[in-house]
Amino acid sequence: MKFTASQIAGILEGDIIGDPDVEVSNLAKIEEGAEGDLTFLANPKYKPYIYTTRASITIVNKDFEAESDLFTTLIKVEDAYKSFSKLLEYYNQVKMNKTGIEQPSFISDSASYGENIYLGAFSYIGENVRIGNNCKIYPNAYIGDNVSIGDNVVVFAGAKIYSETVIGHHCIIHGGVIIGADGFGFAPEENGTYSKVPQTGNVILEDYVDVGAGTTIDRATLGSTIIRKGVKLDNQIQIAHNVEIGENTVIAAQTGIAGSTKIGKNCIIGGQVGIVGHITIGNRVKVQAQSGIGRNIEDDEVLQGSPAISYGDFNKSYVHFKNLPKLVQTIHQLDKKRNDNE
């Protein structure tokens, strides 16, 4: 797929300095750019590379002025980083602009779908499923009975969406995701065995939710596990039954959230964080990677450690943690000196 400098400038509303007809078909880092590549310069740290890059087109800020000759055609824009991101989004839309129903695939007679749908081969669409307009369901995806999917949703290959799940508009579900599996509910018996507690609820994803590859979101025991509008989930996250995650919260990979915990809006949770069940985490909370959360958290707290404590207290304590061997040795020396003087 090729684009000319004129086409790109039109998309970005930019100004061309150089050849308007030069073509690109690949994206590259500015330091690695070759003929036929498109790149960008946003960070001043990389400015020297613009004089050596062989990329055919480079997106730059409008205030950039070349100090020597360039091999590359420039497209000047208000914000090079944002414009490059916009171009990536446009490129993805063009690349993923598949439509039609591939065979073999299965669609239940009671299912319905909107306009401009793409359904990849070997996909399964269950009974009473409702799929909106402009949705892309990639090969080997499974959509269970009574699932509702809004407009402009992408479900990548191999994702599994169990029955009764509700997905809003503009969501992205990556490969290997499982939404709506049973929550981990078992009741202990007197003889030491466990009996399964039926998980009769569902999962609700509101609009603009992204779910990374391999992430699992369990259905509720009763009611719903709810992922609110704008939440972004990284790869390999476990979200247990009846959890609720507030709007625009971001969670990094390998985090585990136990059942019935409520997380507020605009939180940022690092990788490999463990969160116990039946607690409430407030709004705008920041949790550093590998922390363990075992208590209710107020709004705006910043936490680190396991069990997690205030981020400031953790940093102060860490100074002592790393000096513990020296501190122990000093104590032993003082103790020996005291004993010698007795």
Automatic annotation (TrEMBL):
Record function comment: Catalyzes the N-acylation of UDP-3-O-acylglucosamine using 3-hydroxyacyl-ACP as the acyl donor. Is involved in the biosynthesis of lipid A, a phosphorylated glycolipid that anchors the lipopolysaccharide to the outer membrane of the cell.
Biological or metabolic pathway of the protein: Bacterial outer membrane biogenesis; LPS lipid A biosynthesis
EC number(s) recorded for this UniProt protein: 2.3.1.191
Catalytic-site annotation from UniProt: 241
Protein's UniProt name: UDP-3-O-acylglucosamine N-acyltransferase
Listed SUPFAM superfamilies: Trimeric LpxA-like enzymes
Gene Ontology molecular function: any one: N-acyltransferase activity
Pfam family, one: Hexapep
Record-linked CDD domains: LbH_LpxD (cd03352)
Catalytic activities: a UDP-3-O-[(3R)-3-hydroxyacyl]-alpha-D-glucosamine + a (3R)-hydroxyacyl-[ACP] = a UDP-2-N,3-O-bis[(3R)-3-hydroxyacyl]-alpha-D-glucosamine + holo-[ACP] + H(+)
PANTHER family (UniProt xref): UDP-3-O-ACYLGLUCOSAMINE N-ACYLTRANSFERASE, UDP-3-O-ACYLGLUCOSAMINE N-ACYLTRANSFERASE 1, MITOCHONDRIAL-RELATED
Gene3D superfamilies membership: Hexapeptide repeat proteins (2.160.10.10), MurE/MurF, N-terminal domain (3.40.1390.10)
EC category: transferase
Gene: lpxD
Domain UDP-3-O-[3-hydroxymyristoyl] glucosamine N-acyltransferase non-repeat region intervals: 21-89
GO cellular component terms listed in the entry, alphabetical order: membrane
Lineage: Bacteria, Pseudomonadati, Bacteroidota, Flavobacteriia, Flavobacteriales
GO biological process: lipid A biosynthetic process
Natural source organism: Sinomicrobium weinanense
Family stated for the protein in its record: Belongs to the transferase hexapeptide repeat family. LpxD subfamily.
Subunit structure: Homotrimer.
Entry keyword set: Acyltransferase, Lipid A biosynthesis, Lipid biosynthesis, Lipid metabolism, Repeat, Transferase
